[in-house]
Each structure stands twice: as C-alpha cells, then as structure tokens.
C-alpha cells in the first residue's frame, strides 16, 4: 500500500491571476496540507518542474516512492532533492548511508539515489521533513548541512521591521547542485517583514514554506506583478508557490521563520530584480 500523496498543478500566467478571487488564488498557489502523519505528500508544479512536499514518519519509516508523473522506477532517477527537518530528531537513509537530522538540519540528495528512507527518533515527537525537488542533469554528492554550517547573511533593521538572519544551506558555495537552492530565514523579535524590498527573478521560481508561526498568529504573503499585487494569508507549515513572474514577500502578525526553495537556469543567488516599497501597487 502506497504512503505517498500526489497533486499536480499546472502553470498559471499573470493575466489569468488578475481575475482570481481569494479562493482561486489559494487553490492555485497555497500548499496548506504538506505535513501529514505517516505520509509523504507532493505537489508537482509546472514552474521549472519544481516539486514541493513533506514527510512525517511516526510509528514506522517512510520510503521515498516514485510517482506516475515522473515515469521512472525511482524518484531520484533524474531529479535532486533538498530536505530540511522542521520537527523532532530523525534519520534519513540514502542508499545505505544514514544521516542524523536534528531541528533545522538540511540534507541534499543528488540524482541517482535509489533508496531513501525517512524515520523519526520518537513517534510522539516526529521529524517533519520539508521537501523540495527539481530535475537534475548530473549526479552530485549527497551532503548534510547543519544550520551552523550554512552561509549566514544578517540583513534588515528594526527601524524597517525586517531584521533577519538568512541561512543559505543549499547554495553553490555550500553544496554543489544542478539547479536547486534552499535556505532558512529567521526574523528577529520585533521584525515582521520578509524579503522587502520585494524582488522577482524571471529565470527561477520560488516556494516559501512558513514555520515557527504560533497557532494564534498568521503571515500575509504578497505575490503578483509589482504593479498588480495580490495577497494570501498563511499559517504554520503552509507554503506559497511563487511563479517566476511574481514577487514574493510577506508580513506577519509577529516574527516567524520560513524556508525558501528555488530552481531554474541560474544558480546566482543575487540575480534579482528589486522593487522598492513605494513602487508597489
């Protein structure tokens, strides 16, 4: 019996989004149910063939299974995978090699890995593995990256309510990948704005996964073209799929963290087109 859930979402252009109501926006761009106990959940987007998912093993390990859309016997036959643990301690076994995964640890698995097993140390406090995957043209070595091994940028200020630490766990100065990039941004107490000034990068898509959001709080995620913005309210462990033509920014009702993941034809992290706050509409 399969333990994998799968959803396919097709690409949507900016002209279509202009006519969307709230429910249509949420159906197209919000991933609101990625972390399901005893399941591996996937959304296959048609932006850069990017996949976003979650794996929550509790009483038994979970295997990374292929899905029909990939037309391959194994999930990583022609893909790479980025994993970040946002739950309790666990282990991931890739082709016989075990990696211990603490909170906010990252793991890169390259193309060609045949067997991947997710496991939790304590079923009562399970690991919660956030997953990003993109097509890969070459095999690169598997690598675990602890949070203190990331390239860290300290940006923003309290005056503009966006003081934050950007932990680049999967960029080309830390680990070799084909096109996948990931990292963790943590806002300081008193700061609520992420990715401001807002930006676009037309050669890459991006997905924001929000976590460390208290149950009574929320984040308002902004998307759309700079002159035609839209918003989606998100809660803990929910993600927003951002097309290459869209900005991606947000403001919370208190500080929070999020994981950014992107893929495309350019591995230059700084390839961005910025839009000042007074230019947005």
From TrEMBL:
<feature type="binding site">
    <location>
        <position position="199"/>
    </location>
    <ligand>
        <name>Zn(2+)</name>
    </ligand>
</feature>
<feature type="binding site">
    <location>
        <position position="248"/>
    </location>
    <ligand>
        <name>Zn(2+)</name>
    </ligand>
</feature>
<comment type="function">
    <text>Catalyzes the isomerization of 5-dehydro-4-deoxy-D-glucuronate to 3-deoxy-D-glycero-2,5-hexodiulosonate.</text>
</comment>
<protein>
    <recommendedName>
        <fullName>4-deoxy-L-threo-5-hexosulose-uronate ketol-isomerase</fullName>
        <ecNumber>5.3.1.17</ecNumber>
    </recommendedName>
</protein>
<dbReference type="InterPro" id="IPR011051">
    <property type="entry name" value="RmlC_Cupin_sf"/>
</dbReference>
<dbReference type="InterPro" id="IPR007045">
    <property type="entry name" value="KduI"/>
</dbReference>
<dbReference type="InterPro" id="IPR021120">
    <property type="entry name" value="KduI/IolB_isomerase"/>
</dbReference>
<comment type="similarity">
    <text>Belongs to the KduI family.</text>
</comment>
<comment type="pathway">
    <text>Glycan metabolism; pectin degradation; 2-dehydro-3-deoxy-D-gluconate from pectin: step 4/5.</text>
</comment>
<feature type="binding site">
    <location>
        <position position="201"/>
    </location>
    <ligand>
        <name>Zn(2+)</name>
    </ligand>
</feature>
<feature type="binding site">
    <location>
        <position position="206"/>
    </location>
    <ligand>
        <name>Zn(2+)</name>
    </ligand>
</feature>
<keyword id="KW-0413">Isomerase</keyword>
<dbReference type="Pfam" id="PF04962">
    <property type="entry name" value="KduI"/>
</dbReference>
<keyword id="KW-0479">Metal-binding</keyword>
<dbReference type="GO" id="GO:0008697">
    <property type="term" value="F:4-deoxy-L-threo-5-hexosulose-uronate ketol-isomerase activity"/>
</dbReference>
<keyword id="KW-0862">Zinc</keyword>
<dbReference type="InterPro" id="IPR027449">
    <property type="entry name" value="KduI_N"/>
</dbReference>
<dbReference type="InterPro" id="IPR014710">
    <property type="entry name" value="RmlC-like_jellyroll"/>
</dbReference>
């Amino acid at each position: 019996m399969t333990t994998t859930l799968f959803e396919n979402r097709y690409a949507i252009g900016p002209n279509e989004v202009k006519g969307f109501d709230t429910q249509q926006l949420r159906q197209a761009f919000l991933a609101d149910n990625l972390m399901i106990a005893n399941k591996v959940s996937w959304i296959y987007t048609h932006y850069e063939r990017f996949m976003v998912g979650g794996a929550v093993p509790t009483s038994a390990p979970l295997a990374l299974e292929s899905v029909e859309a990939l037309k391959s016997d194994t999930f990583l036959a022609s893909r790479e995978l980025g994993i970040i643990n946002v739950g309790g301690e666990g282990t991931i076994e890739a082709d016989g090699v075990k990696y211990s995964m603490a909170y906010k640890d990252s793991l890169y698995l390259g193309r060609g890995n045949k067997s991947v097993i997710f496991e939790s140390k304590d079923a009562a406090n399970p690991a919660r593995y956030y997953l990003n995957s993109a097509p890969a043209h070459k095999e690169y070595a598997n690598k675990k990256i602890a949070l203190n091994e990331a390239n860290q940028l300290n940006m923003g200020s309290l005056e503009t309510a966006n003081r934050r630490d950007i932990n680049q766990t999967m960029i080309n100065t830390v680990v070799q990948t084909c096109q996948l990039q990931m990292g963790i941004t943590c806002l300081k107490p008193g700061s609520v704005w992420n990715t401001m000034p807002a930006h676009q990068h037309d050669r890459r898509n991006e997905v924001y996964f929000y976590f460390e959001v208290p149950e009574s709080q929320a984040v308002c995620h902004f998307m759309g073209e700079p002159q035609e913005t839209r918003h989606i309210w998100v809660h803990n462990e929910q993600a927003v799929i951002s097309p290459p033509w869209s900005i991606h920014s947000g403001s919370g009702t208190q500080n929070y963290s999020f994981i950014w993941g992107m893929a495309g034809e350019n591995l230059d992290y700084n390839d961005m087109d910025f839009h000042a706050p007074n230019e947005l509409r």
